[in-house]
């Protein structure tokens, strides 16, 4: 029972992180009025969030390896609560940007810290499924921002709504401080790296492990498409280019969450039972994403609704598919550097999403409209990422398998030398 209590407490902090991540997305109009910001300035909030989140992953991983999950979950919740408090009380645009950066920093340390708890508290056979459940249940934060937070924002105004989110963060911080422990023994072995040279050497060592890079390219190839769609360009594409109503577009995004939950459970069970088939599953997810986008973009005009629904369903599998990358990191890295490895993996999808979002913005700005023809060119940027990720997976998978065979042969030889036949 205790492992589930520890995990659920960490999960609550992650749900709060997703809530904090998505509050600005549902309060865009109110933010524009409060901070006198035009649409381009508001979109920069999303870009800033992704930059801070991705850029903080390796430092967060290093801190996680040194201090353990408990301190980082508590610190992350405190940072996010502070940022939301500033947003609640300030009307200054520079202060809002700074607050958003602080929220992004707290968000960045939370997810990998919760994931780090899983292999310490659960049996190896349970780890893939619990990892998937972490990502799935965390999306409840998006539901909280879309329903109760939005209702409070509409009914009571900006300050009460954001203050309530800040209080929620303080509660998560207090619970994590009281209930979360790094291991069943309540402690974690800290890394011995102290100098900058040692830290850089440790980061290099972790990155050079084929399993880390396999996880990085897995996360990159599976996650970015649905992230770009959900965070920035999905609603304009559906409403302006495809002519759907805002209500229908919102329903499709809700469908995306439902699909992610269902697919996450299935992927968690599959990878737990068939660990040697994980990379094949990832390649199939990438191929299906590329194929459905090819079908949609090849149409000369607007796509039928059933095809757009199919598009949403298929790309939404990429979210839970990216979680397999963390499983690769766990498999091929020792516990002492697992946080750094998970941070590196988590960078993959968000760096790709950032580059694609920015590239699409430049293409659409050059085109001067949000037409289907303009979006057809803009969405084509995705193919470069899929090719890079696929090549990266194939190369690193081969190296990881070779390394695993060498390790198995070494262990057999050591066992033979320790117990020679009589």
SSE order and pairing:
Elements: H1 2-26, H2 28-35, H3 39-55, H4 57-67, H5 69-89, H6 93-121, H7 127-138, H8 140-156, H9 158-179, H10 196-208, H11 210-241, H12 246-273, H13 278-298, H14 305-316, H15 318-322, H16 324-332, H17 338-367, H18 372-379, H19 382-418
Helix pairs in contact: 1-5, 1-6, 1-8, 1-9, 3-6, 3-17, 4-5, 4-6, 4-17, 5-6, 5-9, 6-7, 6-17, 7-12, 8-9, 11-12, 11-13, 11-16, 11-17, 11-19, 12-14, 13-14, 13-19, 16-17, 17-18
Transmembrane segments: 41-64, 71-89, 95-118, 161-180, 214-235, 247-269, 281-299, 305-326, 347-365, 377-395
GO molecular function: transmembrane transporter activity
Protein name: MFS transporter
Q: Can you tell me the number of structural domains?
A: 2
Mean pLDDT: 86
Separate helix tally: 19
Under CATH, the topology of the largest domain is which?
Growth Hormone, Chain: A
Low-confidence stretches: none
The first-to-last residue Cα distance is 47 Å
Relative strand content: under 5%
The major pleated sheet works out as: none
**Count of DSSP E strands?**
0
Main location: membrane
Domain Major facilitator superfamily (MFS) profile: 6-401
Organism: Mycobacterium dioxanotrophicus
Keywords: Cell membrane, Membrane, Transmembrane, Transmembrane helix
């Amino acid at each position: 029972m205790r492992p589930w209590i520890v995990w659920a407490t960490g999960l609550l902090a992650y749900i709060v992180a997703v809530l904090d991540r998505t509050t600005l997305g549902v309060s865009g109009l109110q933010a524009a009025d409060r901070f006198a910001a035009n649409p381009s300035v508001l979109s920069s909030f999303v870009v800033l969030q992704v930059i801070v989140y991705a850029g903080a992953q390796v430092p967060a991983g290093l801190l996680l390896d040194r201090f353990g999950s408990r301190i980082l979950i508590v610190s992350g919740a405190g940072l996010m609560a502070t940022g939301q408090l500033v947003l609640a009380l300030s009307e200054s645009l520079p202060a809002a940007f700074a607050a958003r950066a602080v929220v992004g920093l707290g968000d960045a340390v939370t997810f990998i810290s919760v994931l780090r708890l899983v292999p310490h508290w659960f049996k190896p056979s349970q780890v893939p499924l619990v990892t998937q459940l972490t990502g799935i249940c965390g999306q409840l934060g998006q539901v909280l921002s879309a329903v109760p937070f939005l209702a409070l924002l509409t009914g009571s105004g900006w300050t009460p709504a954001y203050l309530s989110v800040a209080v929620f963060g303080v509660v998560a911080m207090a619970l994590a401080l009281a209930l979360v422990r790094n291991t069943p023994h309540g402690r974690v072995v800290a890394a011995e790296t102290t100098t900058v040279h040692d830290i850089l050497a440790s980061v290099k060592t972790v990155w050079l492990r084929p399993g880390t890079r396999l996880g990085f390219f897995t996360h990159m190839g599976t996650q970015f498409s649905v992230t770009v769609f959900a965070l920035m360009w999905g609603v304009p594409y559906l409403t302006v280019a495809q002519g759907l109503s805002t209500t229908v577009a919102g329903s499709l995004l809700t469908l995306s969450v439902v699909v992610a939950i269902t697919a996450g459970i299935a992927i968690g069970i599959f990878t737990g039972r068939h660990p040697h088939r994980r990379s094949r599953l990832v390649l199939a997810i990438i191929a299906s994403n590329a194929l459905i986008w090819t079908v949609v973009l090849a149409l000369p005009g607007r796509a039928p609704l059933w095809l757009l629904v199919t598009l949403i369903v298929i790309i939404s599998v990429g979210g839970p598919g990216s979680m397999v990358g963390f499983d690769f990191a766990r498999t091929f890295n020792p516990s002492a550097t697992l946080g750094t490895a998970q941070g590196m993996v988590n960078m993959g999808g968000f760096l790709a999403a950032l580059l694609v979002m920015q590239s699409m913005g430049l293409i659409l700005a050059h085109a001067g409209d949000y037409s289907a023809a303009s979006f057809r060119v803009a969405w084509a940027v995705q193919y470069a990422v899929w090719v890079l990720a696929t090549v990266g997976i194939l190369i690193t998978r081969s190296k990881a398998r070779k390394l695993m065979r060498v390790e198995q042969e070494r262990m057999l030889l050591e066992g033979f030398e320790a117990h020679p036949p009589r």
